[in-house]
Design brief:
256 residues, alpha/beta, 60s Ribosomal Protein L30, Chain: A, Alpha/beta knot, 2 domains, six-stranded parallel sheet, elongated
Length: 256
């Protein structure tokens, strides 16, 4: 790769639009490419190592990575990103438009639930939930409150899988249509309830739970099985348990 290519990549990085999404590391770039992200620029401190990773772990996108990624000096890479990922790969992609995300969330009939995080506070948890939603094939992840689910820390935790599902922040009054299945300690045991494909699975924070407004709108309240005297599960763990239950035979699915 020529010095001119490196200079051009650095210039593109500096001129990136405000809504550009940082893809931090090889795996984030891999997932973003697999799920159709518009990746504008990608850099690495070691292109040979990046291509070796691609050949080993993501041969389906190796050619695209070879064409896209530009090698820059490691000191330059450190100037471009807050902290360099161990794979020495970073990229910028275009964040999906709000209208397109909302259209995906509202289109029907839905074949998988939407995960709703009511006023989440931990960005790492938000990203972990996005990974779970992508893995289970959920329709999307909606957050309420003031935390942006596309914050760089959430995208980092999501490993590029924000592009594999619809991720958007909406007011609680503007949630997509569908029955609200709210996770609440006083609800029915989720193991006895069939969760419909078009459900909105609503989770609150570990400290505050779901807001009274959304709890009051619930179609059903569901609880997760828990040993007495244990206070709560981690948010991402709760989402995983609920999605695993939805994907089981009680709901007409057979996830393995």
């Amino acid at each position: 790769m020529s010095d001119d290519d490196a200079v051009r990549a650095v210039r593109q990085w500096g001129e990136a639009a405000p809504d550009a999404v940082l893809l931090d590391g090889f795996h984030a770039l891999k997932h973003a490419l697999r799920f159709g992200a518009d990746v504008r620029v990608a850099v690495t401190g070691d292109k040979a190592a990046a291509l070796a990773l691609a050949a080993s772990l993501a041969d389906d996108v190796t050619d695209r990575i070879r064409d896209l990624v530009v090698e820059v000096p490691v000191p330059t890479l450190r100037e471009l990103v807050p902290r360099v990922h161990p794979t020495q790969v970073a990229a910028l992609a275009t964040r999906p438009g709000r209208e397109a995300n909302v259209a995906r969330l509202e289109s029907g009939p839905r074949r998988a639930p939407i995960v709703v995080l009511d006023n989440p506070r931990n960005l790492g948890n938000v990203g972990a939930v996005v990974r779970l939603a992508a893995g289970f094939g959920a329709t999307g992840v909606v957050t309420t409150g003031d935390v942006d689910p596309w914050h760089p820390n959430a995208v980092r935790a999501g490993a590029g899988l924000h592009f594999a599902t619809a991720v958007e922040r909406l007011p609680s009054s503007g949630l997509p249509p569908g029955p609200l299945y709210v996770l609440d300690p006083e609800g029915e045991d989720i193991r006895s309830v069939a969760v419909p494909d078009d459900a909105l699975l609503v989770f609150g924070s570990e400290r505050h739970g779901v807001s009274p407004e959304l709890r009051g709108r619930a179609t059903r309240l569901l609880s997760l099985p828990m040993r007495p005297q244990v206070s709560s599960y981690n948010l991402a763990t709760s989402v995983a348990m609920a999605l695993f239950h939805w994907g089981g035979p009680l709901n007409g699915h057979d996830l393995e």
